Amino acid sequence: MNNDLSRRGFLAAGAAMIGTGAVAQTANSTEIESDLSQQVQRNISSFRSLDWQPYFSNLNNGAILVDIQSRALHYWSEDQAIYKLFPTSVPLTDDLTRTGRTEVTRKVEGPSWAPTPAMRIRNPEWPEFIGPGPDNPLGSHALYLSWQYYRIHGTHDTRKIGRRSSNGCIGLYNEQIAELFGYAKVGTQVLLI
């Protein structure tokens, strides 16, 4: 009888843990993230390589394509010798998502971060500024885009990759943004679809 009770207890505890929300994962985070346990769908099947021609007329300065639906970033070098495919985090909601053509305007290793005016309204408790380091939501590197407040950047919170978890930016693992940072130039064309 003791085996039944401990087995039942174990199963009940396991079920309770599975049903628990992701609150602890977002503690001290500067990203807006609700309980993702019910809404996150991992996207494996559409994470595939693509050709650049349907999206760009040329590869001058290289090209970055971000597919919001598949949560993937594609990079092609100008000479077509390099093609990279990276998993990303994407904006949490459609109203935070911007699509269309832009370009890399600045590259920063060890970026600083400050919340946008809209973020400050939604989250007045957030700090006004975070310098480079492990608490910085932009991670180790950032590619600034011609759209104000939008970046392709790293993250120290690796749980965000593959999810709708950002306030508008595109996030990559720090190792992968460092690699992309090495390839991309000021002037690299970017398309978000």
Write the layout of secondary structure elements.
Blueprint: H1 2-19, E1 63-67, E2 72-76, E3 83-87, E4 90-91, E5 100-109, H2 117-122, E6 141-145, E7 151-155, E8 164-166, E9 170-173, H3 174-183, E10 189-192
Parallel strand pairs: 1-10, 4-8, 7-9
Antiparallel strand pairs: 1-2, 2-3, 5-6, 5-10, 6-7
- Estimate the mean pLDDT confidence: 82
Order of secondary-structure elements = HEEEEEHEEEEHE
Main sheet: strand order:
3-2-1-10-5-6-7-9
- Beginning-to-end CA distance, first to last residue: 59 Å
The percentage of residues in β strands lies in 15-25%
CATH architecture annotation name of the domain at 63-192: Beta Barrel
CATH topology of the domain at 63-192: L,D-transpeptidase catalytic domain-like
Q: Which structural class do the helices and strands define?
A: alpha/beta
DSSP, total strands:
10
Cα shape: globular
Q: Identify the quaternary structure here.
A: single chain
Rg, rounded, reads 19 Å
GO molecular function: glycosyltransferase activity; peptidoglycan L,D-transpeptidase activity
Pathway: Cell wall biogenesis; peptidoglycan biosynthesis
Active site: 153, 169
Family: Belongs to the YkuD family.
